[in-house]
Amino acid sequence: GNSVTQMEGPVTLSEEAFLTINCTYTATGYPSLFWYVQYPGEGLQLLLKATKADDKGSNKGFEATYRKETTSFHLEKGSVQVSDSAVYFCALRRDNTDKLIFGTGTRLQVFP
Amino acid sequence: DAGITQSPRHKVTETGTPVTLRCHQTENHRYMYWYRQDPGHGLRLIHYSYGVKDTDKGEVSDGYSVSRSKTEDFLLTLESATSSQTSVYFCATSSGSTDTQYFGPGTRLTVL
To answer: How would residue A33 be classed by pLDDT, with cut points 50, 70 and 90?
Structure first.
């Protein structure tokens, strides 16, 4: 079946450190891939997305590249800030459907 | 962001009582979704709607029903709440089947 696997958190970093949150997926066909972010007490917001292999999604200094050969969509940021502290969800949507399948989420904590 | 509100934002109820959660949107989006968020599971789709009076089941629909009598409102009903339905419930909307989903702020439901 279709699924998304994320690294377990929490991920704890100091401000200005490099961030990687791993995400791998299992899917038939050619899914679209997403990263959503959930700040404390809020709903999810789309952070970035990629719709085909080798596409790179980017937003707010975050990047993720759709790697079909490794079925991965790892989230990276070169220098995190305290304000990036949140829960990050990787998700996929199979081609020609509207259903999102989410990973379990990874909590990021950034300390000054 | 789409104007999505959820009510109530917090509710505590007892086992066996009926509960209705409301999602209201002002963006005239055709598609609406109900998810539940639980530790270790990420977000899971309960029910969704692709138009007025058109609804279908998601991954975890047992014990839930929905109704959509007008474009802007999508109601989620727990006919007889159980402790296993203690969760945070999120509504989402999208303008098209493969467009970005926008999330509401969530409702925290506790069933004692």
So the answer is: very high
Q: Using beta carbons and an 8 Å cutoff, which residues of B are at the interface with A?
A: 1, 4, 31, 40-45, 48, 50, 58, 90, 92, 94, 97-98, 100-106
CB contact under 8 A, A43 and B4: yes
Q: How far is CA A52 from the centre of its chain?
A: 15
Q: Which residues contact A4 (CB under 8 A, 6 or more apart)?
A: A23, A24, A25, A26, A90, A91, A92, A101, A102, A103, B42
pLDDT at B69 over 70: yes
Contact A33, A50 (CB under 8 A): yes
Mapped onto helix, strand or coil, the DSSP state of residue B84 is helix
Residue type, A23: C
Partner-chain contact A93 B98, CB within 8 Å: yes
Contact (Cβ atoms closer than 8 angstroms) between residue B4 and residue B90: no
Neighbours of B50 (CB within 10 A): 15
Neighbours of A79 (CB within 10 A): 11
Q: How far apart are CA A38 and CA A88, in angstroms?
A: 6
What integer pLDDT is reported at residue B99 of this predicted model? 79
Can you give the pLDDT at residue A96? 66
* Full DSSP string of B13-29: E-TT--EEEEEEESS--
